[in-house]
Structures are given as structure tokens and as C-alpha cells.
Design brief:
The chain is α/β, with parallel strands linked by helices and 236 residues long. Helices cover 50% and strands 11% of the residues. It is globular and about 45 Å long. It starts with a helix and ends in a 9-residue tail after the last helix.
Length: 236
Amino acid sequence: MDAIADEVGDSACVVANTGTYDTHHSVALTRAALETGVDAFLAVTPYYNKPPRAGIIAHFTAIAEAADGRPVIIYNIPQRVVLNLEPDVLGEIGEIGNVVAVKQATADLDQARAILADTGLALYAGNDDLLCPFLELGGTGGVCVASHVAGVQMRRMIELARGGDMDGARAQDADLRGLYAALAVTTNPIPVKTALNLLGHDVGGLRLPLVEADAAQTATIAAALEAAGIRSAARV
């Protein structure tokens, strides 16, 4: 985080992911990241230990306090953490002064509508294929996987939606659907690291229990990059 904040300076907003299943550890990470000069924080729902509502509120309150006034984004991803943060819970969390947004990684559009209508939180898509649907509802943007390799195209989608051209945004989304699927061919970050390495970015390998993409998965990812115009056939 220190290296990233030093490299980008004031040219970009750096959001540090400091959430864990342990409040004490999350607070320590948030305070340490704050010292590096990051601009905001992302904090996931505590996983495995399944805290009750009061514990969830206390967890995010402690992280927000450690952030020292800088913005905090809540990360709701029930498929990985067991618990789903329902809109009424998010609304209560949103009453914490510097909690400003939610990265919503569930395809329930009714929940997304309720977040926008009732919580005051900005809505960010947590899955690639949710970016366009959330933009249609009035979402702000996304914290996505495919944006690591198709950031220009996904930013264009957001700009089209903000400009009122939802047909153009949907067309851009349709062009990227094959890439979304390829980058979900196995558990992330395996596919996205494979894609970045194929594009010449030396992002290294993975730590167990994650393993490298196999030959078939790598071929699927390479083909999708080519089809999306991100990687030419000559470089495959």
C-alpha cells in the first residue's frame, strides 16, 4: 500500500482493503494503511464467525473510527462470507458518518433498488456482470475483476450511462460478456492474474490453497482477451 500510494500520488484515489473477520485485526490494518496515505477503505463482512446484527454494526463502526474520517466502502458478498447484509442493515451501517458506499456482489436487483432508495449509500457493482444493470438503476460504478484488463471499456460504459446513453452502455457491456465469463472460469484471483500475466504484467503466481490456471483455463482466458480486442492473436 505504501508503494502504491507513493507511486500514484495525487493522480488517483487509492482504496485499501483492510477488512477481515477479526475486528481488532481490521482496525490495526486500517490504522497502518492510513499512515501510508491511502484515500479510502474497503471492508468486507466478517466471514466464518457469522456475527449477529449488533456485532456487524460494531465491527464496521470500529473500522470507520480507525479510518479517521476517510471514506469507508462496505463489501457485501454473501456467497463468500455466508451473511448477506440486507438493505435495512446497510441503512444502519450507513448512519456511520464516513461510511459512504457499498460494493454489492449479489445479483438481487430488488436489494440494489432498496439500497439506492433507502440507505443513502452509493452503489458499486461487485461483480462484472452487475455493472451495467446497477448503472441502469442509478448506481455509481463498480469495483470489478474485468476492469483490471478492460478498464478503458468499463469506464466508457459508466460514462455512457451517466450521459444518458443506456443503449450505448448496454452495447459496451454486451461486448465484454465473453470476457466476464472467461474471468470466472475458476476461482479468482486465479483467472485475473492469469490474464494480467498474459498481457505482459508480471504479477506473479498464487499462494496455496489457490493454484495456477490449467492449460484449458488459460486458453479460454487468452481467447476472451483476443475476442475483446485486448490481446492480439499474434501475441497468444
